[in-house]
Amino acid sequence: MILSYFTPYLFLAAAWAKILYAGVNESGGEFGVFGTPGTGLPGRFGVNYAFINKSTVDIFVDQEKINFFRVTFLMERMCPLEFGLGSKFNETYFDEYADAVNYITLQKEAYALIDPHNYMRYNDPSSQPFSGSVIGNTTDPTAATTRQFEEFWNELARRFVHNPRVVFGINNEPHDMPTQLVLENNQAAINGIRAAGAQQLILAPGNGFTGGHAWTQVTGNGDEPSSDFLNMLHDPARNTAIDVHEYLDIDFSGGHDECTQPAPSNLANLTTWLQENHLKAVISEFGGGNNQNCFDFINEMLTYLAANDEYIGWSIWAAGPIWGTSSPCCGADTGSLEPGMLNDLGQPNAFSTLWPAAVRPNIPKDLKRSGISSLL
Ligand SMILES: *[C@@H]1O[C@H](CO)[C@@H](O)[C@H](O)[C@H]1NC(C)=O
Ligand SMILES: *[C@@H]1O[C@H](CO)[C@@H](O)[C@H](O)[C@H]1NC(C)=O
Ligand SMILES: *[C@@H]1O[C@H](CO)[C@@H](O)[C@H](O)[C@H]1NC(C)=O
Ligand SMILES: *[C@@H]1O[C@H](CO)[C@@H](O)[C@H](O)[C@H]1NC(C)=O
Ligand SMILES: CC(=O)N[C@H]1CO[C@H](CO)[C@@H](O)[C@@H]1O
Question: Gene3D superfamilies this protein is in (predicted)?
């Protein structure tokens, strides 16, 4: 499909905003591929990968009153390598994924953030986040093209065009690539989504693992700051926000128990940039360990997001049906946020510790409950 949007529309500049979306990552659809290339592809549903447990989604919506779930999947499963990246999907995998998204959005009337968990790379997820060819790398003959990425998003958006409660997350954590290419791939995705007729909210990531603290900094191997490029996106529907990740430990990775990086000071430059460019952002990954200091840091962060109109939502990392006793974030003893599961010490996981201490008190009462996903 030929796409042509000649008018460089600006994003909608809202005079106010509030937290519209609050929730949790549902991670599991990308599991089971680590090891030698090809491991776990296509994989077995319920064994190597799974998207949600409907019973625990019920707990989150009915008891916790959140309205937002980020649901991960792997592009190499949605578009098997023999098909290549594009509009031809594995219909089995798509149906499994759509069942999860439809449960969240149609049955539970919450919003689902569609998350291709691919670091803007495609063809080898065996050592994520570093393996696989960068999408649109024209000097890599095995790389998927930016045009293929546009076709992929056009098809995915077409399949959800009548579902107002989806949000399109362009990709998880681009890194170590030219920031200009992050911009071009983002723009291609927006063009593909809008050409499908889909008007829902889009979240566009930056470079450097889309880290909020590094938004105005050079990242990777001298890649230019996200702030120099991401304000050049144009969306004819004026319904795109910036997708940001922000962990609170020493290196912003989410790999440590201790929280030492306060969100307010680390996000300050991003907040100013959002203001100057009349943009909004969603923090779609963050987290902290199972200790009082991290509870305090998370409380501080969610208070900061609520107090700054540039932020319209957040989702914490991570729940999901097949974490077992593993910790998706922040120290081995933390455990996941999946209700009912234990941590590696056989004790209740973060849903029983961190969630009531630092997340539940910050879930706004007036989250968006109806209408198409949007900036307002
Ligand atoms: C789904 O969650 C419910 C409620 O916590 C639990 O009883 C059940 O065992 C879970 N199912 C799976 C497959 O993990
Ligand atoms: C599609 O996905 C299903 C479920 O994982 C798998 O059994 C099947 O082999 C896949 N097909 C292709 C072409 O990858
Ligand atoms: C693009 O591909 C070339 C050739 O494989 C490689 O040397 C280069 O590192 C790649 N660029 C990125 C950003 O991955
Ligand atoms: C924020 O911007 C100021 C001024 O450009 C700079 O000195 C500082 O290092 C930046 N902070 C971060 C966390 O990037
Ligand atoms: C902080 C954290 O746990 N990040 C992980 C998110 O999930 C991806 C893959 O699912 C991992 O590669 C990250 O390390």
Answer: Glycosidases (3.20.20.80)
Answer whether residue 9 shows pLDDT above 80: no
Q: List the end-to-end C-alpha distance of the chain, in Å, as a whole number.
A: 30
Check pLDDT > 60 for residue 360.
yes
Q: Is any atom of ligand 3 closer than 6 Å to the C-beta of 139?
A: yes
3-class SS letters over 216-239: CCCECCCECCHHHCHHHCCCCCCC
Q: Is the Cβ atom of 215 under 6 angstroms away from ligand 4? A: no
Q: What is the per-residue pLDDT across 45-88, written as a single tens digit (0 to 9) for each? A: 999 999 999 999 999 999 999 999 999 999 999 999 999 999 99
Structure tokens at 291: 């200790």
DSSP, residue by residue, 250-286: TTSSS--S-----HHHHHHHHHHHHHHTT--EEEEEE
Q: State how far the Cα of 252 lies from the Cα of 124, in Å rounded to an integer.
A: 25
CB of 134 within 6 A of ligand 3: the answer is: yes
> What is the Cα–Cα distance from 342 to 277, expressed in whole angstroms?
44
Please answer whether residues 147 and 103 qualify as being in contact, where contact means their C-beta atoms are separated by less than 8 angstroms: no
Closest-lying ligand 2 atom to the alpha carbon of residue 45: 5
Chain position carrying tokens 């998207």: 51
